[in-house]
Amino acid sequence: MSEVLFQVFPSENFIDLGLYQFGWEQCDPGHSFGPVARNHYLFHYIISGTGILYAMNATGDSVAYSVKSGQGFMIFPGQICTYIADQEHPWEYTWIEFDGLRARETMELSGLSVNQPVYKARFKDIALEMKEEMLYIANHGKSSPFHLIGHLYLFIDAFVRSSRETKITRGNSLQDFYIKEAITFIEQNFQNEITVEDIADFCGLNRSYFGKIFRENLGKTPQEFLISYRMSKATELLRLTTLSIGDIANAVGYANPLHFSRAFKNVYGCSPREWRGEHEIK
Fold this sequence. Notes:
Blueprint: E1 3-8, E2 18-26, E3 32-37, E4 41-48, E5 50-56, E6 62-68, E7 71-75, E8 80-85, E9 92-99, H1 103-110, E10 118-120, H2 124-139, H3 145-162, H4 173-189, H5 196-203, H6 207-218, H7 222-240, H8 245-251, H9 257-268, H10 272-278
Antiparallel strand pairs: 1-2, 2-9, 3-8, 4-7, 4-9, 5-6, 5-8, 7-10
Helix pairs in contact: 1-3, 2-3, 4-5, 4-6, 7-10
């Protein structure tokens, strides 16, 4: 019987980088999972043992990778994968599922991609720091969200610094400026009925060009980001206040509560009322 430690992160209100679930497992011989596709980035670090990862690459082909102790593997959002522990030397691993505005940047810095999902440490001492951060998170699931997010950042730092394929990216400082300006405008005006045109105008950019650089840098369209940000704020109000659904809709920029409820359900798969019932603070 395999031993498993599994936790789900209790908050969805972190925009730059957020946790979704995390844990540790000593696998049974031949233990398998999949085929499955994830909505977020899921990283496994192999503490001991060996096994096989079958991961779909960018052209849709399933590629087999042998992954052993001291290595790891990243499952990317939407990537179909199956992973199988060895019969003789099954995996012991720890994992973290995360996402956010800075997740794509993290992948670029690490060098991992759907075509290269296997992590190989360049610096063993930093990889050890990374493993300790992952195990710390796995063993402190009852800590406050801010405490766990702090350790997520320490994990990300060690993950990037220890990666064999770490890249130095200079970026485009002017594009970075426009993106920061856009995010600041959204943070300060999400409660109003703003449009993508309003955000582009604030940045002094053509809408088409603004949408292009926004998606290239954040992996989301401006509209997707705006909706995601509004829904995140809505969950805070649903969890922490007794405001009506109509008042919350208005507070996050929706004059029509029905439009708000539809948008919320598209993101979370349930109505705001159902979400509140499931996440009520007891």
